Hints:
Layout: H1 2-37, H2 41-73, H3 79-89, H4 96-108
Helix pairs in contact: 1-2, 1-4, 2-3, 3-4
Amino acid sequence: MYERHRGTMGALHLVLGLMNVIAALCLWFVLGSVVALAQDAEATRVLGAVAVLLGGLLFLLALPPLIAGFGLMSRTRWSRTAAMVSAFLNMLSIPFGTGVSLFTLWVLFTEEASEPMP
């Protein structure tokens, strides 16, 4: 079952990671536009800090699914572990992260997936 679903899992993890990257870029663009329009120096400073922190957090959250997706697509040995880590980290990312995480954990915790890879 693992070999049959490996490509699907890889594609889903890549899409999930790209969604986080797009969300971070949109956040930076929107808050950057608000900062450019703000006339208050303190508001500019606070919104700039929020944009950097939240955008950076979204980029950090995009790394595990991107790494897992590339690993699954390239059939590396560490891809199973990376997919598990990514699934647990994205479990609270409702609704898409939860769906991808549940599918990943369902595939990885079957009897066939626990056999050693060739």
